[in-house]
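[job 4471] stage=fold_predict status=RUNNING
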Amino acid sequence: MRITKKGKCFLVGAGPGDLGLVTLRGKELLEQADVIVYDALVNPAMLGWARPDTEIIFAGKRPGEKTFSQDEINALLVEKARLGKNVIRLKGGDPFVFGRGGEEAETLVAADIDFEVVPGITSAIAAPAYAGIPVTHRAQNSHVTFFTGHEDPSKSESALNFDALAKLGGTQVMLMGMDKLAAITAEMLAHGTRQNLPVALIRLGTSGQQRTIVGTLENIAERASAAGLEAPAVAIFGDVVELRKDLNWFEKRPLFGKRVVVTRARKQAGKLSSQLRELGADVIELPTIRIEPPSDLREFAELVQDSHSYDWIVFTSVNGVDAFFEMFFKLYDDAREVGGAKIAAIGSATAQRVKEFHLHVDLQPAEFVAEEVVKEFEKKGGVENLSILIARAEKARDLLPKKLSGMGAIVDEAFAYQTVPETHDVTGAQHRLSSEGADLITFTSSSTVENFLDLKLPWPAGMKVASIGPITSATARARGLSVDVEATRHDLAGLIEAIRKFYGA
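[job 4471] inference complete, writing structure tokens
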């Protein structure tokens, strides 16, 4: 088959690690990519933005895995683009700052492949900023110098001019030099840089795993070795390092240093994950469930079509609201077609989602569980002979329809969606949990508990359990888990608050 579509390659900077520092253009391209070729320093959570059918190729270095040479990476980009594909070359930091992006761009030009460069925030400025170190300051310096400690091994001698660095002064930032730190600091001292020059080393800057060590040019290599600090790290040489004492902001966040696992479905995980990251946590998104259409979509559509004939429509989750109205607006083009049906919603998030469709919520229990809906209906005088449509997940608890039927209501269940086990681990979250462990795992439904345990992953030593509410907690305990944190308000805000209190924040 002849390929007529011309492919294009995008050299995209993935930024320093914090997902919030990825450019809008970079995220947009990842969502549209046919092929993603990424490096080890890229935050793998970004891969979760890709389409399910995107081809994802790891081109970094991991123990026991094939390592691509730069020539092989160049050839791969050309090969995939010539197949008519949109190829994303995803590189940590900025592709043109010590990222060999220039070499890849030259290859694409030689192969007559269209390309675009999407700059990324380099760790050379981001890591110091997250450690409370401004690389420039009017009272401290008038210039900043970036250099690499990892030069082309084919060079006969180093291009670094240590005499010039000593005379230049100012702030100097070194990337990729941890394995040569002792030799580089010795050269700097030998060429006249002062012994007491403040130095900071920042490992995995901007991430929840960020670690900072401060010393002087004379002792920083020894301190790094004693602390076991490994690459990747950024080194900052200069008096601006002293400002960290007052400006260190990121490492003071309430959950800094805590690794938290989020088990929600990938499309839903973002809100919880982002709130945890804002509090400084290192988040592992490990989706255990995936939201899919119901097994009988025709039956669901028929019930939605007749929704105007019911006295009440009950929504038990945001997913139910989304699925209901997605189908509703395929059938009708006017929200008024819902007729005179009143609406009940379990949970503030569910109610808010209904309101976003410009519909009023007539009943919302204070407690976010099915039992409270029954109590609220009892307060309203009962439901005898009323017709009620419940939009909910397949295989969910049947307490609500049974109770309402027992009170004399005519109840129909509209199975709006189903939760199935998530089988894709495109971001490598399972491996990360197994190898790095975690401090806390969050469960937001019984299905997240069941499906996580069914993965049979090793349980990290000391990992605590946080539950969104009593139903989820009951499932966890039934499966042999101890629940350490339970939200008193059974929504994401309540869960976040419970976690903060648990850690004394």
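[job 4471] summary: The CA atoms of residues 21 and 368 lie 35 Å apart.
[job 4471] exit 0
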